Amino acid sequence: MCVSRIQRLMMAIVLGLVLFLGLTSNVNFAIGLQIFVIIMLSIWAITNFCPSIWVLKKILPPCEWEK
User: How far apart are CA 26 and CA 47, in angstroms?
Assistant: First the structure.
């Protein structure tokens, strides 16, 4: 797996966790986690810097989309 795919899977897992927590009695934690995701995506959109991709690039290889 490569960096971009892992980052997308992580985002899907976090959003699924937010949905699960929102449906159970942990609504406050779900809202907090959702606000965190919104802030991180806003930072990525405004500055073109994604902290999770930055960390993952130190561990995993970049994606080679041409192959």
Answer: 32
